[in-house]
Specification:
The structure holds two protein chains of two kinds. In chain A, helix 4 packs antiparallel against helix 10 (207-231) and helix 8 packs across helix 10. Helix content of chain A is 67%, strand content 1%. Chain A is flat. Chain A has helices spanning 2-10, 12-30, 50-56, 73-104, 108-119, 126-137, 143-150, 165-190, 194-202, 207-231, 239-243, 253-256, 259-267, 273-301, and strands at residues 41-42, 58-59. By secondary structure, chain A is mainly alpha-helical. Chain A has a two-stranded antiparallel sheet with strand order 1-2. The longest helix of chain A is centred in the first third of the chain and has 32 residues, at 73-104. Chain A is built from 14 helices and two strands, in the order H-H-E-H-E-H-H-H-H-H-H-H-H-H-H-H. Chain A starts with a helix and ends in a 7-residue tail after the last helix. Chain B has helices spanning 2-31, 50-65, 78-89, 106-111, 119-125, 127-132, 135-140, 166-171, 182-195, 242-257, 272-275, 289-297, 313-316, 330-342, 344-352, 399-409, 426-444, 450-463, 466-484; strands at 36-43, 67-74, 96-99, 150-151, 160-165, 200-202, 214-216, 224-227, 236-237, 278-284, 301-305, 310-311, 320-323, 359-363, 366-369, 391-392, 411-412. Chain B folds into two domains: 28-151 and 320-383, 3-Layer(aba) Sandwich (D-Maltodextrin-Binding Protein, domain 2), CATH 3.40.190.10; 168-312 and 407-486, D-Maltodextrin-Binding Protein, domain 2. Chain B starts with a helix and ends with a helix. By secondary structure, chain B is α/β, with parallel strands linked by helices. Chain B is globular and about 70 Å long. Classes of the chains: A mainly alpha, B alpha/beta. The A-B interface holds A 43-53, 66-67, 70-72, 138-140, 157, 159-160, 247-251, 253, 257, 262-263, 265-273, 275 and B 85, 88-91, 105, 107-109, 112-114, 219, 261-263, 265-266, 268, 325-327, 422-423, 426-431, 433-434, 437-442, 447-448, 463-465.
Chain lengths: 308, 486
């Protein structure tokens, strides 16, 4: 106890700084967590308010989860996980590469310009991006089809042909996410002690050797942390990307239907708070398990870089 | 013995006293109501003068039923749905909200107990409105015998029309009254395609669907229902019906001939209306729609009906008010709704705003809008009995008579008054809805070959548990028929 108080006194400025976030987390993340029980209940509204309704609604076990494991379940789970794995891998490679490249640009002003340009898509909503992209893929006035026309080729019905869509989605995700993703890595690179590079240069190391033997190893902890955190969201998908960008085209469902869009389409009008809660619960619990497992594995291989 | 007699006298006395007191209490309650404030959610783009009108309306209601009102408004679409759903799920107290088959998840929330059953309250406090609302509305709205919302009295049925761009109708001297089916339309589509380059013969987006003679049960996007002229109420999958196949083959032919845009299945909202370069489209009508459309579009259109008006469950649940289970005083809420449907002063104030500020009366029940009107522009159809609203100067004098005539012509759909409860097959229903979303737009617009895709869709529906959904529908509908001797 004494220790706790002393510790508190010693770090009071730091603790004060995390106070707002702590309060926020408790209010908006921990407190509502008891609402998870809705996923196991047949929620009926009662006039005595939310808590009363929650407590007195009937328990239904796992019934709310069933729809996630019927018929299309395999397809949507496969799509969700595969896309996310590709997103994590490509996102990591591109973010790190661009971060290193940007740090190597000698002209600081130009580097800032590139960085801002790459960062910009992050602030656009998928709805806007979806329309913007429609300008490229639209059948009669689209940019791509105009080019095909000039080249004397048949126009492509982009929104009816599933085959290019996995690539389109991966590209769009990169286009929107790379700038944002590279910021953390750039900060980490800035934090690397310059003397390492000076020493390497004195020894005659080339740029490539410097990157390979100094920058990348120093970035490893950040890469691991970000990847493990991304694994925690592997069952969640970016709704806007999979719904707005393909314009909800039925012909593309085989490659664009993911857990989030499936839940939205199935419960849009007959929304049932129990079933939606079940979907969220399922996604979080699977993500949580994945984080634990991957952290366990990292602990075995390289305990220094494990999250906890 | 003696004590027993005394006891019974005392008992009788007490009983008489209590009855007397009760009667006295009732009389007093009617004479003087407790003050109460109604919180009411309406749909539409939030208006600047909403509070002003709330205050003015409160003044009037204070005299009438000792009530004040607080109007709150959320914007069309997702905003209204999501905000209302949050308010409902979290059990916040409010009195009245706008609901519809397409807004605030009416069916689901009614099943979940979010709205009060109103039939007893209507008997007590709503006799006047019961007399003016078309009986088919109140008949069709019942769910398991209860009335969970009060329909806004307006046009009853749904009627699809072919809407033509008058420019081309005049140019080619087309007699549109003879056009009903896709076949009737075909020669003219060909004509337009040949002679008018740059004009799209059928203006349509992904929501386009040709008329098919079915009464769909539950969600309109699912393919399960009965034939409109059914006698045995057998639930069918319309993707397997020969009528569907024939119609969709025709659509496919149109699509291939270029009468409809190649990317129609993914077009969210086209800009045809703005450019005016279109020949015909399919719309839902209401009386005087041609005048209204021509005004909004800025160029003349004419229309011709595809079928007679039909009263579906969906069309009568198009605009309603529900009373929340969290209301502190549901009696007062119903009293207010009663006024909204019978008192022209209340009805017009909530619709047009304050006289002298937002509009001025220029005749008996005829108004002219003032510039301030832009701060209070409300959706008339979503605010109670339509027949009480003052006419605009440009409206024909028999405006509401035409509505009444339209209602008199309307035919009942076979399942009117039956409401499907999907909760026993919720898992399958969610999957079925996904399949429907996948195929509807492609099939109805002719973007894919129906010979292949109808089968594909049916197969996928089966895999999603469609047969179970159909069996449950049949079970519920048979039960409903037995109860209502249909």
């Amino acid at each position: 106890m004494h220790n706790v108080i002393r510790n508190f006194k010693k770090n009071k400025e730091l603790l004060f700084m995390v106070l707002p976030v702590t309060v926020w987390l408790i209010l908006f993340s921990y407190l509502p967590m008891f609402g998870i029980v809705i996923a196991f209940k047949d929620y009926k509204i009662h006039k005595n308010g939310f808590l009363y309704s929650l407590i007195y609604s009937k328990w239904v076990g796992l019934k709310n989860f069933e729809y996630l494991f019927k018929t299309d379940a395999w397809l949507i789970t496969r799509n969700t996980i595969l896309y996310n794995i590709v997103f994590i891998v490509t996102g990591l490679i591109f973010s790190v590469t661009f971060a290193i490249l940007l740090c190597e640009v000698a002209n600081r002003r130009l580097a800032k310009f590139y960085q801002t340009t790459m960062f910009l898509p992050h602030f656009l909503s998928w709805v806007v991006v979806g329309y913007f992209f429609y300008g490229f893929l639209s059948i009669d006035k689209g940019f791509f089809n105009q080019i095909l026309k000039i080249m004397g080729k048949e126009p492509v019905l982009w929104y009816s042909d599933p085959s290019p869509w996995p690539f389109i989605l991966i590209f769009m995700n990169l286009w929107k996410g790379t700038g944002y993703g590279s910021v953390v890595y750039m900060a980490a690179i800035m934090g690397i002690d310059k003397t390492y590079y000076e020493a390497a240069m004195l020894d005659g190391a080339s740029k490539w050797q410097q990157i390979k033997h100094i920058t990348l190893p120093m970035l490893k902890p950040v890469m691991i942390i970000l990847t493990v955190l991304a694994l925690g969201r592997i069952f969640n998908s970016d709704f806007g990307l999979f719904y707005q960008v393909p314009r909800d085209s039925g012909a593309l469902y085989d490659v664009t239907n993911v857990i989030d869009t499936f839940v939205f389409r199935g419960l849009r009008t007959f929304s049932n708070i129990g079933m939606t809660a079940a979907a969220g619960f399922y996604q979080s619990i699977m993500g949580f398990l994945l984080v634990l497992i991957s952290n366990y594995i990292i602990n075995k291989i390289d305990s220094e870089n494990a999250l906890f | 013995m003696k004590s027993k007699v005394i006891l019974s006298i005392v008992m009788v006395g007490l009983l008489a006293l209590s009855i007397g007191l009760a009667g006295f209490g009732e009389a007093r309650a009617a004479a003087k109501l407790e003050p109460y404030e109604i919180i009411m959610y309406v749909i539409g783009t939030p208006q600047k003068d909403l509070d002003l009108v709330s205050a003015e309306l409160s003044k009037y209601l204070k005299e009438k039923i000792n009530t004040t009102i607080k109007l709150r408004q959320f914007d069309w679409g997702d905003e209204y749905n999501q905000k209302m759903q949050n308010i409902i799920d979290s059990g916040q107290p409010f009195d009245i909200c706008f609901v519809a088959s397409w807004a605030a998840n009416f069916l689901r929330n009614a099943h979940n107990g979010a709205f009060l059953p109103l039939e007893n309250l209507i008997e007590k406090y709503g006799q006047e409105m019961k007399a003016v609302i078309h009986p088919l509305f109140l008949e069709g709205i019942r769910m398991k015998g209860h009335i969970y919302a009060i329909p806004n009295n307006k046009e009853l049925g749904k009627q699809s029309v072919w809407r033509f761009n008058k420019k081309y109708v005049d140019k080619y001297n087309i007699d549109i009254t003879k056009i009903k089916t896709l076949e009737d339309l075909e020669p003219y589509l060909k004509l337009i395609k040949k002679n008018e380059s740059g004009v799209i013969p059928i203006s349509a987006d992904r929501t386009f669907n040709p008329y098919l003679p079915f009464d769909i049960i539950g969600e309109s996007r699912t393919p399960y229902g009965v034939y409109l002229d059914t006698k045995d109420y057998k639930v069918i999958n319309k993707f397997e019906a020969p009528e569907t196949k024939e119609t969709l083959k025709k659509m496919r032919q149109f699509y291939k001939a270029g009468y409809i845009r190649a990317d129609v299945a993914t077009t969210i909202k086209g800009d045809d209306e703005k450019t005016g370069k279109w020949f015909v489209g399919k719309c839902d009508t209401q009386p005087l729609a041609d005048i209204m459309w021509s005004q909004t579009l800025g160029y003349p259109v004419v229309s011709t009906p595809i079928h007679e008006p039909i009263v579906y469950n969906e069309s009568i649940t198009g605009s309603m008010f529900a009373v929340s289970v969290t209301s502190q005083n549901p009696e007062r809420a119903v009293m207010f709704l009663n006024l909204l449907n019978t008192d022209p002063k209340v009805r017009n104030m909530i619709d047009h705003g304050i006289e002298g500020r937002h509009y001025k009366l220029v005749g008996d029940g005829v108004i002219e809008l003032l510039p301030e009107h832009r701060d209070y522009d409300m959706p008339s159809f979503a605010l109670g009995n339509l027949f009480l609203i003052y006419r605009y100067q440009q409206d024909p004098p028999d405006k509401w008579e035409q509505f009444k005539k339209f209602n008199a012509q309307s035919k009942k759909a076979p399942t009117l008054g039956f409401v499907f409860d999907p909760s026993p097959v919720q898992t399958e229903y969610a999957a079925v809805c996904n399949v429907a979303d996948e195929f509807n737009a492609m099939l109805y617009t002719g973007a894919v070959d129906p010979n292949v895709y109808l089968q594909k869709a049916s197969k996928k529906l089966k895999a999603a548990g469609g047969d179970k959904v159909m069996a449950e529908m049949q079970r519920q509908i048979d039960k409903w028929r037995a109860e209502n001797s249909k």
